[in-house]
Design a protein that fits this description.
about 120 residues, OB fold (Dihydrolipoamide Acetyltransferase, E2P)
Length: about 120
């Protein structure tokens, strides 16, 4: 699954973790602003770990991510566990959308005559 996105406020930003000489990640948490807010942890991997550097706690952002899942079993007799991750690949600040003060508001325009409203 790809091209998913969600908006929320940055709640926490974690330090980069070097897992091995071939893999590093950095996690961050956002909280959505809806009736029942969700707290979501995302990870940035490899060369994307610095994407969160330009943001601070409290910033409203839109996170674009891929949903990843995998199974893991400690040994053949152990229960199979499923782990999900939200792999962020782009983060952008959400700005309040406001029309410039000199822009008139768009109002519906009535047809000039009843004939102008005919579909043929």
């Amino acid at each position: 699954m790809s091209n998913l996105s969600v908006e929320g406020k940055v709640k926490r930003i974690h330090d980069e973790q070097v897992i091995s000489d071939r893999f590093k990640k950095r996690e961050f948490v956002i909280e959505t602003e809806e009736q029942y807010p969700q707290v979501l942890m995302f990870q940035l991997v490899q060369d994307k770990t610095n994407l969160i550097d330009q943001f601070s706690t409290g910033d409203k952002v839109e996170v674009f991510f891929n949903l990843r899942g995998r199974e893991w079993q400690k040994d053949p007799s152990a229960e199979i566990r499923v782990f999900n991750t939200l792999d962020a690949w782009r983060i952008q600040k959400v700005e309040a959308m406001q029309a410039p003060a000199d822009m008139p508001s768009a109002e519906p325009v009535a047809p000039a005559s009843p004939e102008d409203d005919l579909p043929f």
